[in-house]
Amino acid sequence: MPERIIYLDHAATTALDRRVLEAMMPYLTTEYGNASSIYTLGRHAMQAIDGAREQVADMLNCRPTEIAFVGCGSESDNLAIKGMAFASKNKGNHLITSSIEHHAVLHTCQYLERFGFKTTYLPVDEYGSIDPDAVGRAITDQTVLVSIMFANNEVGTIEPIAEIGRICRAKKVPLHVDAVQAGGAIPIDVIALNVDMLSISAHKFYGPKGVGMLYVRQGMRILPQLQGGSQERGRRAGTENVASIVGAAAALRLAYEEMEQEAPRLIALRDRLIEGLLTIPASRLTGHPTQRLPNNASFCFEGIEGESILLNLDLLGIAASSGSACTSGSVDPSHVLLAMGLSPEWARGSLRLTLGRENTEADIEKLISVLPGIITKLRMLGG
Ligand SMILES: *Cc1c(COP(=O)(O)O)cnc(C)c1O
């Protein structure tokens, strides 16, 4: 194994930033109070949570009372969708989502189908873009929720959320946005976007694993999905993970502070990578050519297995992904790539490279120098 791993899987997770760890340290050691306790140690914990909530609200442009801290991005998606669906049972039983959502959304909708809900899974075009007008056309008088992702985790396509938000607001149907990939990467303003609920997760922007956030617009009623104490204004029972909540806010603040510098740097690296890898025969870029996350370069190579590429890269100390982390290990081609109209032969040969803070130009050049040989070798071996 080479000494330094070239980590190109930032869409799966990111390393905890040292500065974030420092902000968390007191709450992992001396400040261990339960935020519900009335003595000083407990009040310190509550003050830390309140401060974190204010910071997150400030960055998303909402009120602190509209932010709930939860256990992860998946839980945030679950709470938004189940919480709204079950709270709206007397209004209707129809949900709208897209065919390229994360499984935290897709499997939640499928679960709700067992309770009498019906889901419309909207198609996408060849770039993975959702047509806002198709959202409008799918809305019926039975629709209780639309859930559309901000940016796709596999191919990086950024969806027209502001336009979708405008349409949903006009039809008075709540919109939930899975912004877990977008959080910390591009600016998010819940007012400008007209969204009613929005999910992010700290480990995708150099914060700790195991803490998510859900924005719920004031006046929206959702049913809690975890019963117990009245933490998080009754939305999520359980003693607060103070250190991680503090870390999530610190990580988001750093991401916002550095975004103006970091996003153009990543875009330049991404575009160099795309240019370099598309010289490989029978290769193609997946996702939208311009409306895509600054750090996402994803490809398909005809006639080979993505898993084989990953194993060859791993031998060189390069960490990458094929489709989403959750589906790797299974041989099924990605539901996202199939929804974009790729044939299974192309979709099986997918490679997702997602860049981040530690990556340099040298990392990119290394990949451009080794990948063509790996693809040629695998094709000679017959996949
Ligand atoms: C990672 C991810 C999730 C799940 O977040 P966790 O914190 O890992 O549970 C949900 N949606 C998208 C788009 C993601 O990328």
UniProtKB/TrEMBL annotation:
<dbReference type="InterPro" id="IPR015422">
    <property type="entry name" value="PyrdxlP-dep_Trfase_small"/>
</dbReference>
<dbReference type="InterPro" id="IPR000192">
    <property type="entry name" value="Aminotrans_V_dom"/>
</dbReference>
<dbReference type="InterPro" id="IPR015421">
    <property type="entry name" value="PyrdxlP-dep_Trfase_major"/>
</dbReference>
<keyword id="KW-0663">Pyridoxal phosphate</keyword>
<keyword id="KW-0808">Transferase</keyword>
<keyword id="KW-0411">Iron-sulfur</keyword>
<dbReference type="GO" id="GO:0051536">
    <property type="term" value="F:iron-sulfur cluster binding"/>
</dbReference>
<dbReference type="InterPro" id="IPR020578">
    <property type="entry name" value="Aminotrans_V_PyrdxlP_BS"/>
</dbReference>
<comment type="subunit">
    <text>Homodimer.</text>
</comment>
<dbReference type="Pfam" id="PF00266">
    <property type="entry name" value="Aminotran_5"/>
</dbReference>
<comment type="function">
    <text>Catalyzes the removal of elemental sulfur atoms from cysteine to produce alanine.</text>
</comment>
<dbReference type="GO" id="GO:0031071">
    <property type="term" value="F:cysteine desulfurase activity"/>
</dbReference>
<dbReference type="GO" id="GO:0006520">
    <property type="term" value="P:amino acid metabolic process"/>
</dbReference>
<dbReference type="GO" id="GO:0046872">
    <property type="term" value="F:metal ion binding"/>
</dbReference>
<comment type="similarity">
    <text>Belongs to the class-V pyridoxal-phosphate-dependent aminotransferase family. NifS/IscS subfamily.</text>
</comment>
<dbReference type="InterPro" id="IPR016454">
    <property type="entry name" value="Cysteine_dSase"/>
</dbReference>
<keyword id="KW-0408">Iron</keyword>
<dbReference type="InterPro" id="IPR015424">
    <property type="entry name" value="PyrdxlP-dep_Trfase"/>
</dbReference>
<keyword id="KW-0479">Metal-binding</keyword>
<dbReference type="InterPro" id="IPR017772">
    <property type="entry name" value="Cys_deSase_NifS_bac/arc"/>
</dbReference>
<protein>
    <recommendedName>
        <fullName>Cysteine desulfurase</fullName>
        <ecNumber>2.8.1.7</ecNumber>
    </recommendedName>
</protein>
<dbReference type="GO" id="GO:0030170">
    <property type="term" value="F:pyridoxal phosphate binding"/>
</dbReference>
<feature type="domain" description="Aminotransferase class V">
    <location>
        <begin position="6"/>
        <end position="367"/>
    </location>
</feature>
